[in-house]
Sequence to fold (195 residues):
Amino acid sequence: MNYLAHLYLSYHDEGLLAGNFIADSVKGNPTGRYPEKIVEGIIMHRLIDDFTDKHVATKEAVEIFRPGVGRYAPVLLDIVYDHLLADNWTDIADIAMPDFTESVHTKLGLNYPLYPERMQQFYNNMVKYNFLPDYGTLEGVEQTLIRLQMRANTDVDFVAAIATMENEKGRLRDLFLYFFAQMQTQLANKGYARL
Fold:
C-alpha cells in the first residue's frame, strides 16, 4: 500500500504515524535512531508491507496488472490500493477525509525535525498540495502514475494501467476490501488496534 493506507492505519497515534510515514526512507534497524513510538511505527509499516505482499488477494490483484506493466505490477498496485481506499472511504474510515487530512498534516508536523531530508520535502509538498484526497480521483491517480513513470525511468506506460483499473474495478474493489479487513485484524492481533 502507498501513503494513504499507511497513514490511515496509524493516524490515531503521532509516533506510529511518523514512523509509518518515514519507514521507506529508513534502512536497517531503527532502534536508537528514533524515539520508541516512531521505531514502532517503522516496524508497523514493515509488517503492513509484508502482510500486503504475501496476501492471496494482493497476489491475484497484481496479476491483473502484470500483462501491462510487468515487474512493476506490485508498485502499481500500491497506488491502486490507495485509490480503492479513498474511493471507499466513507464505508471504511471512521473520520471524514478533510478531517483526516488535517489531522495527518498536524500530527506529522510534530516530528518534522526527525525526518530524513527527502521526507521533509515530501511532507512539505503533501501539505502544500494537499494531495492525499487526490487518490480518490482518476486525475489524482494519473498524476501519481506520471510521477512514478518519471522516477522509474522506463518505457512502461503506467498511465495506461488506469484503463485496466477501471475495467476491473469491481473485482479489484472486492479483493481490496477482503484484504483490508484482514489487514486491520492482523494489526489488531499484533497490538496495533485503532484507538
Q: What stands out?
A: The first helix runs from residue 3 to 10. The mean pLDDT is 93. Residues 3-189 form one domain. Residues 50 and 93 are 22 Å apart (CA to CA).
